[in-house]
Amino acid sequence: MEKTKVAIVGLGTVGTGVARLLLDYGDRTARHAGRTLWLEKVVVRDLHKPRAIRLPQGVLTDQLEDVTANPEIKAVAQLIGGLEPARSIMLRLLESGKDVITANKALLAEHGGELFDRARELGRTIAFEASVAGGIPIVTNISQCLSANQITSIHAILNGTSNYILTRMEEDQCDFAEAVAEAQRQGYAEADPTMDIDGTDAAQKLAILAHLAFGARVNWRDIPRRGIQTVEADDLQYARQLGYRIKLLAVAELIDSGLQLYVSPTLVKIGTPLAEVRGAYNAVSVVGDAVGRVFFHGLGAGQMPTASAVVADLIDVVVGRAPITFRTLELWSQRYDRLKPPSPEQMPGRFYLRFNVEDRPGVMAELTSVLGRHQISIASIIQHPGSNDDPGVVPLVIMTHQTSEGAVLSALEQIKHLSCVQGGNVVLRVRS
Ligand code: NAP
Ligand code: HSE
């Protein structure tokens, strides 16, 4: 059988999974590729670091040149995180004639324009299925299978670590820090888990999906985002009492003022598909004008689900499917202007607000009059019992009707100066 030589750069969580699939299940990849994908080289930084996989003699190297200078290696899975040296290594690989497969959404969200333009100039391909939603084939589905549609909205859970943390906190009463440490142990989290927790990772993935679905070249930093760091165990419990779960949602939706984009912890009605996504699973709910709603669900992080997407890309690259798609889509071309999403102030929505307030007469009236002055209509108010440590202060949860984020933020600015408010302001969105 014909043999195509491939390589891996970076032998961490995902790189190890890819090596495993290529070495242990070569017959499977050969059947789908019509040739053997031969793992010729794996490049690491430190040859002496213990590895979770045994590679055949002569495969492991710490010299990138063993790949770039070998014309027989056609495709490289570059599986190192962060921006540098990932960017320079990708450019070196492309310039030495390799097609590159990546799972690095941070790199694409930051330098996609430069890297894709360079790949096109050189007649090379970059494939990136694993960069969004791990094992869910959402890049292929949006860019190819749904291409007859005008997509009108995407509501997605795109960060496995955050979803894992929220699930553990809700179901096992696990402490936030303990849940983060477990997500790291499981290999879900980024090298710096702050990027998972503060919404950065989800915003970078949303920027990629928005580009594929809406043709919008967005700087991920322009996407308004909140992470799960302000969500407390009490909020999960209060939301549940109201019939909701809290999920870190990434949303791209066509509205009157343009393409609304945001990442925010959001109350999602229990029983709806997004509310039932647990652990490190991701989900993407897409609405297209012809197809209606389609829902994708699967593991969004972790070694083998992500490796599954990388190896599928390797196969697509070596058989020639990915290069056709890459040329046709002209993604991230810097010829196109960047889109500036509407500012958060203009974004409509319903909100969950929690304040810690003094437990005395008149407090409710003070708060509701500020909300009223900002035209914010209240759907429900629940005062919860205070803690034994501070019985004079109680949590007050308010759910609003439809309003704008601008109105909520300027009301909060006044509310936080009221003497009855003792901090603890939490603002979450509510999915209508
Ligand atoms: P990881 O476990 O930290 O592994 C990264 C690997 O890259 C490490 O083995 C590291 O080497 C290696 N590396 C760094 N610089 C290098 C260099 N100059 N030359 C050669 N190797 C180098 O990260 P990961 O979880 O596999 O993630 C890799 C990428 O996939 C990231 O962009 C991440 O965002 C993305 N991703 C991860 C997941 C997941 O579930 N983990 C899912 C989807 C996408 P050392 O071993 O020497 O430190
Ligand atoms: N850290 C990422 C997550 C990995 O938790 O979703 C998958 O991109």
Chain oligomer state: single chain
* CATH architectural grouping of the largest domain: 2-Layer Sandwich
Number of strands: 18
* Annotation field: number of helices: 15
CATH topology-level name of the largest domain? Dihydrodipicolinate Reductase, domain 2
Shape, principal axes of CA atoms = elongated
Bound molecules: NADP nicotinamide-adenine-dinucleotide phosphate, L-homoserine
End-to-end distance, in Å? Answer: 55 Å
Number of domains: 3
Main CATH class of the largest domain: Alpha Beta
Biggest β-sheet: count, sense, barrel? 10 strands, mixed
List low-confidence stretches. Answer: none
Helix-strand makeup class: alpha/beta
Describe the overall structure:
The chain is of the alpha/beta class. It has three domains: 157 residues, NAD(P)-binding Rossmann-like Domain (Rossmann fold), CATH 3.40.50; 162 residues, Dihydrodipicolinate Reductase, domain 2, CATH 3.30.360; 86 residues, Alpha-Beta Plaits (2-Layer Sandwich). The strands form three sheets. Strands 7, 9, 10, 11, 12, 14, 15, 16, 17 and 18 form a ten-stranded mixed beta sheet that branches. Strands 3-2-1-4-5-6 form a six-stranded parallel beta sheet, with helices on both faces. Strands 8-13 form a two-stranded parallel sheet. β4, α4 and β5 form a beta-alpha-beta unit. The longest helix is centred in the first third of the chain and has 18 residues. It is elongated and about 80 Å long. The model has no long low-confidence stretch (mean pLDDT 94). Bound molecules: NADP nicotinamide-adenine-dinucleotide phosphate and L-homoserine. The site of NADP nicotinamide-adenine-dinucleotide phosphate (NAP) has 27 residues, from α1.
